[in-house]
Specification:
Oligomer: single chain
Strand content: 15-25%
Low-confidence stretches: none
Bound molecules: adenosine-5'-diphosphate
Order of helices and strands: HEEHEEEHHHEHEEHEEHEEH
Strand order of the largest sheet: 2-1-5-4-3
Largest sheet: 5 strands, antiparallel
Helix content: 55-70%
Shape: rod-shaped
Length: 468
């Protein structure tokens, strides 16, 4: 993990953070440096201009003798290593200077003189003295119609300041780089500690341990919300795994009894004396048990298909009223056999787009349950009607009813209420009916009838509602 630290977002963010910080500080320092250099040069230039003006004034008052004296006095006052003056004619012939032993190497530049002659008011230049390597700022200017003053000022005080500035700059930059890298790293690591918690939890989760959850800080920041989403995702996965486990347990349990029966018949056939009638009965029982098994497997496959995207449903215009009538006709003899009162309230000519085979199957399941779970001599009512943008198919019975806490459970695969375990069934019918209804953009729900029994309502979208 350590060797891959350079690949982490934390490392890259730290690089960005300290890079940007360093660049900003660097740019600020450089700007400040140039501003300081500029200010110093301006100051020196202004000083040279002021002193030149003093020479102009003194020549006007006291003539060249006054200027000679001023050159010596001024240089002495300011320091002979700091400033010098050279008075000359336009030809370059020097006739007076301040004390020049420190400034020996400074020449008179003919190019500067000719620029003055061309009409420039003053000519500035920066030179480096050959002997000491120090820098000096020089100004050439007319102080009388025929007299030029070359004045120069040492730049070493400023150079010392700028050198000190550069040292501070280098020190400050080193500090800024180290500080921004360390501070950036700590900040980013703190910000990412939530991600690390999630990663650690994800690592702890294995197929058998889905109980681990990320600890939430309660700060409601992005990472806390990510932790919450991650935890609720884990909740859903845990439930899914649990329900899958339950389903496979149920499948194993429900498949066991028909297979045990088939095995029992086969065993009996082995020990049986030669009696054709018995063999036939055993074969018939085996076929019946196999059919139940096949029916269960087919229903499970159909539910999976209806719940998945791919399916073999074929939708076409259907006369629902006719479909419900025909299904009722099929069930009528059975209902009569059980002594039930059968009430049909079927609105005529209700049409929709549906897979008629599938819808018949869903409706028949409801009707079959009503007959199955209503004791002898009860009542069964089938209603088909439109209600706004819905079509409702209701199957009401006066049977045992359903405990309200199982209103949703009965739609789960293999769920059967305790009280109905004595009746034949697989617990798959309602699950399939709901999957079919949902495939038609509808649904099924249940409620208990006001007095006794239950009411199952299958809803479908009323496509004609838009037209009306
Ligand atoms: P099955 O009828 O094969 O058990 P279903 O999925 O059709 O499976 O029904 C699931 C359970 O719902 C039934 O076992 C029964 O407990 C309950 N149930 C369904 N319909 C009714 C009804 N009309 N009256 C009472 N209980 C019902």
């Amino acid at each position: 993990m350590g060797s891959r630290i350079t690949q982490t977002i934390a490392f890259r963010l730290t690089l960005w953070f300290s890079g940007i910080f360093t660049i900003c500080a660097g740019v600020t320092f450089i700007l400040f440096y140039y501003l300081a250099v500029q200010t110093f040069e301006n100051q020196m230039d202004q000083e040279l201009i002021d002193r030149t003006s003093e020479f102009t004034a003194i020549i006007r008052r006291n003539g060249l003798a006054g200027a000679r004296e001023l050159a010596v006095v001024q240089a002495q006052t300011a320091g002979e290593k700091v400033i010098f003056f050279r008075l000359m004619y336009p030809s370059g012939e020097v006739f007076a200077t301040s004390h020049m032993s420190h400034w020996k190497g400074v020449k008179v530049q003919p190019s500067a003189l000719s620029r003055l002659m061309e009409g420039h008011k003053g000519v500035f230049e920066t030179i480096q003295m050959p002997a000491t390597g120090e820098k000096a700022r020089i100004l050439y200017g007319f102080v009388a119609p025929n007299v030029i003053l070359q004045s120069g000022i040492a730049m070493n005080t400023h150079a010392r300041f700028l050198l000190a500035f550069k040292k501070v700059f280098a020190g400050a930059m080193a500090f800024i780089i180290i500080f921004s890298a360390v501070a950036g790293w700590l900040l980013v690591r703190k910000a990412f500690s939530g991600v690390e918690r999630i990663t650690a939890t994800a690592r702890r989760i294995t197929g058998s341990n889905l109980a681990a959850r990320v600890k939430q800080t309660g700060s409601r920041d992005e990472l806390d919300q990510l932790a919450e989403t991650f935890n609720s995702m884990l909740d859903r996965i845990e439930n899914l795994v649990k329900s899958n486990r339950e389903i496979s347990d149920n499948i194993a349990h429900d498949l066991k009894s028909p297979i045990t029966q088939i095995r029992g018949h086969a065993e009996l056939a082995l020990v049986q004396e030669d009696n054709l009638e018995d063999y036939r009965a055993m074969a018939a029982n085996t076929i019946e048990a196999s059919d139940r098994l096949l029916d269960m497997i087919n229903t499970m496959l159909l539910i999976s298909k209806a719940q998945a995207q791919e399916d073999d449903f074929s939708f076409e215009p259907v006369d629902l009223s006719q479909m419900v009538e025909e299904a009722c006709d099929l069930f009528e003899p059975l209902i009569e056999d059980k002594g039930h009162r059968f009430i049909k309230e079927i609105e005529p000519s209700i049409e929709t787009i549906a897979d008629i085979r599938m819808l018949q199957r869903a409706f028949s399941n409801l009707l079959d349950n009503a007959v199955k779970y209503t004791p002898y001599g009860g009542m069964i009512r089938v209603t088909l009607c439109t209600a706004g943008d819905l079509i409702e198919i209701r199957v009401e019975d006066s049977g045992m009813g359903i405990s309200p806490e199982n209103y949703e459970n009965i739609f789960k695969r293999f769920f059967r209420e305790e009280s109905s375990r004595t009746s034949p069934g697989t617990g798959l019918g309602l699950s399939l009916s709901r999957a079919i209804a949902r495939k038609h953009s509808g649904d099924i729900f249940v409620e208990n009838a006001p007095e006794q029994g239950s009411i199952f309502t299958l809803t479908l979208p009323n496509r004609n509602a838009d037209v009306i």
